[in-house]
Specification:
The complex is a heterodimer of chains A (about 450) and B (about 250).
Chain A (H helix, E strand, L loop, with lengths): L2 H12 L3 H39 L4 E6 L17 E3 L7 E3 L3 H8 L4 E7 L6 E3 L9 E4 L8 E4 L10 E5 L2 H4 L5 H4 L3 E7 L5 E12 L8 E4 L1 H12 L4 H4 L4 E6 L5 H13 L2 E5 H44 L1 H9 L4 H40 L15 H27 L3 H6 L20
Parallel strand pairs in A: 6-11, 8-10
Antiparallel strand pairs in A: 1-12, 1-13, 2-3, 4-12, 5-9, 7-10, 8-11, 9-10
Helix pairs in contact in A: 1-11, 2-9, 2-11, 2-12, 9-11, 9-12, 11-12
Chain B lengths: L5 E10 L6 E11 L4 E5 L6 H8 L7 E6 L2 E2 L5 H10 L1 E5 L10 H5 L1 H6 L3 H14 L15 H13 L5 E5 L7 H18 L2 E6 L2 H5 L3 E6 L2 E7 L18
Parallel strand pairs in B: 3-8, 3-9, 6-7, 7-8
Antiparallel strand pairs in B: 1-2, 1-4, 4-5, 9-10
Helix pairs in contact in B: 5-6, 6-7
The chains are: A alpha+beta (about 450), B alpha/beta (about 250).
Chain lengths: ~450, ~250
């Protein structure tokens, strides 16, 4: 029997007892369907995290802060040489500010390509053409960052003029008809210096950014604009005060190995600085998602294991029913190996049907859920596609199920392959009330 | 004297061990020449089916040897034995063993499919075999939808499709009424005479056995007598003389 005939016969045989095959396919379908959706959710959320990560920082950047002395051991003694600023984190979190000496020290660390202070600017309001003024927070655009743009382009870090990307939620408020309408307009920042003197700085809107998971409603300014805002708000500050920053941005070679990055972080730590990449900040979040998806996947795999026993059961029945047919084929010279192939291919085919239908319906359900959820539950998270499908992951699901089906099929297939042709031919078949019209030919039929 | 196509050399066959040991054959020797028709006659439990299974290389004797064209079959590899059964032997069973819900043509071409012959060639040879048995118009029918006589003709077509040199028939008319049975008998004997196919029939039907060139009677695992038009020198048949029953 050649390979083509073997596959053809296996497919034909698996369709012979339709009800039984359908039920087994259904049990595999449930597992494959669940696995498709859970891995789809994993892919979707992780894709979302990836785009979010790209929008809040570049992958060759370390944010460096000066580690404050451990406050766990009681009050810290006052040090007149150090100034602290409130930092992001739980209330009470402070970091020691970085001065120009610190920047020089950081710049000297092996592996640091450049070091820039991160300027914190806090304009009072933003407005367009004397319209309503709104409060706003501003972040700097770091080269390598990728904004999730709804319209326009990212601010050009090398540009000599003030450029800004506005969050999509401000489009309506600032009086634009749609996202594209905002691009090219002029935005005015109102900012007050230390002495209380207000001033205005204008910038061109070059893009509209989708709100990400982190830093969602911040305006993204290019370097020129950030410096202009910083200078405006620092008027009246002493040189030292102006020259102290909450954190600095260090660039390193992104093509380097993980070990080099670890070394760089260790070197910074030795000097009393803490360097964190965007991945460090988001990594824990991703780990949680991965963990949840893993648990969900495990449930789906358990369903598939149960389905595997269904395959064993189905094929054992099939072998039993076809005892005489197996005997006949063996008598006619079909080798045990081919018999094994016949039954294990049948199992693989059942697996293929179950997983293909499961993956197909799973994808449809995923797309359906996406379109429903995007307008309801997840409307506040634009850019999030809850269920996304990765062709490689889907192929893996199908192949895994087929592999599982093959393993399940080996037990009945071995039994069939080992059958003694004489015993099989002599085998008295139990009379069945002819389900599905598949009544066996018996001598009494004549 | 020509080398017999099949020969049994003092074969013993027993099943089980110890107290449950059952000796199905207790020293049987038999030569079967190319082109002859031979009936193995005996009651159920006499060992006639066991002898046929051993001659058809479906089983191995406990002792003794089955020779295929003078070669000891136990020396052949499993692959060669399978190939021999597929290409040299044809099988006709009492219970037909047709695959239900499969077309008559597919049933007939099963041995060719097992041999790995391509679809077009299979169809050509299958249709030729069916035409020979006047069943060409039933090729597309389901095997289940045929009458008993038609089924047995399909089975004979299946046995013929590989152009075998030996056909083993186990009670070929056992499930047929006497009229259809006679038709099937005619087909089998005409195949033997016209195509020179060796016919080995296992039966307890005296009338069918009487149409064969030779009858071998088996009882309790031994050949009790062998009746033949022309004597053949086998140890067990040595005492028998001509068409006279002792």
């Amino acid at each position: 029997m050649n390979a083509f005939d073997l596959i053809r016969s296996a497919v034909k045989n698996s369709l012979r007892s339709k009800t039984r095959t359908t039920l087994t396919v259904l049990s595999i379908f449930i597992g494959a369907f669940t696995l498709t959706l859970t891995s789809g959710v994993g892919t979707g959320i992780n894709q979302y995290i990836d785009t979010t990560v790209a929008s809040i920082g570049a992958n060759d950047v370390l944010t460096v802060t000066k580690a404050a002395e451990d406050t766990g051991d009681g009050p810290v003694e006052y040090n007149p040489d150090s100034t602290t600023v409130a930092a992001a984190g739980p209330p009470g979190t402070t970091v020691v500010t970085l001065g120009s000496d610190d920047l020089t020290a950081i710049g000297d660390v092996d592996g640091v390509l450049s070091v820039e202070p991160q300027l914190r600017v806090s304009p009072d309001y933003v407005q367009v053409n004397d319209g309503t003024a709104y409060e706003a927070s501003v972040g700097s655009f770091i080269p390598g960052m990728a904004l999730d743009l709804a319209a326009g382009a990212e601010p050009d870090p090398a540009a000599g003029s003030n450029e800004v990307a506005i969050p999509v939620s401000y489009v309506d408020a600032l009086g634009f008809s749609d996202d594209a309408d905002a691009v090219g307009a002029t935005l005015t920042f109102g900012i007050t210096d230390v002495a209380g003197t207000p001033s205005d700085i204008t910038a061109t809107i070059v893009g509209v950014a989708e709100e990400g998971l982190v830093g969602s409603s911040a305006f993204t300014a290019n370097e020129v604009l950030t410096e202009a805002l910083y200078d405006a708000q620092s008027v009246g500050l002493s040189a030292t005060s102006k020259d102290s920053y909450a954190q600095a941005v260090v660039r390193f070679d992104p093509t380097g190995t993980e070990a080099e990055l670890t070394t760089l972080k260790a070197d910074l730590a030795d000097l009393g600085y803490t360097g964190t990449t965007v991945e460090d900040q988001i990594g824990s979040f991703k780990a949680v998602i991965d963990g949840i998806v893993l648990v969900l996947n495990a449930f789906a795999v358990i369903a598939l294991l149960a389905a595997g026993f269904g395959i064993v059961n189905t094929l054992l029945m099939s072998v039993q029913e076809r005892t005489r047919e197996i005997g006949l084929m063996k008598a006619m010279g079909l080798g045990g190996g081919k018999i094994f192939g016949l039954f294990s291919l049948e199992a693989v085919f059942i697996g293929l049907m179950g997983s293909a239908i499961g993956v197909g319906v799973g994808m449809l359900a995923g797309f359906g859920a996406n379109s429903v959820l995007a307008d309801t539950l997840l409307a506040d998270l634009p850019g999030l596609t809850l269920v996304a499908f990765d062709p490689a992951a889907l192929a893996t699901i199908v192949l895994t199920v087929m592999g599982l089906a093959f393993l399940a099929g080996t037990i009945p297939a071995l039994r069939a392959a080992r059958q003694d042709p004489i015993e099989s031919l002599r085998y008295e078949e139990p009379r069945r009330p002819a389900p599905e019209g598949s009544c066996r030919l018996r001598g009494a039929a004549a | 004297m020509t080398v017999p196509i099949l020969a049994a050399r003092d074969i013993h066959k027993s099943y089980g061990r110890g107290a449950t040991r059952f000796d199905a054959l207790r020293g049987v020797s038999l030569d079967i020449q190319q082109g002859e028709s031979i009936a193995i006659v005996g009651k159920s439990g006499s060992g006639k089916s066991t002898l046929m299974h051993l001659l058809a290389l479906l089983d191995n004797p406990s002792s003794g040897a089955v020779e295929l064209s003078g070669r000891d079959a136990s020396a052949l590899s499993g692959r060669v034995v399978n190939q021999t059964r597929n290409e040299t032997f044809g099988f006709v069973f009492q219970q037909f063993f047709l695959t239900p819900n499969t077309s008559v043509l597919d049933n007939v071409t099963l041995p060719l499919q097992i041999a790995g012959i391509g679809g077009a060639e299979r169809k050509r040879r299958g249709m030729a075999a069916l035409a020979q048995l006047e069943l060409a118009d039933k090729a597309k029918n389901k095997a289940t939808d045929l009458s008993g006589g038609q089924k047995q003709r399909v089975v004979i077509a299946r046995a013929l499709v590989n152009n075998p040199s030996v056909i083993f028939a186990d009670e070929p008319t056992g499930n047929l009424d006497s009229a259809t049975g006679a038709v099937v008998e005619d087909i089998l004997f005409s195949l033997q005479k016209e195509n020179g196919i060796t016919l080995i029939i296992v039966t307890h039907d005296e009338d069918l056995a009487a149409r064969c060139d030779r009858r071998v009677y088996i009882r309790d695992g031994l050949i009790t007598e062998s009746l033949h038009g022309e004597p053949i020198a086998t140890p067990a048949a040595a005492s028998s003389t001509g068409e006279v029953r002792a």
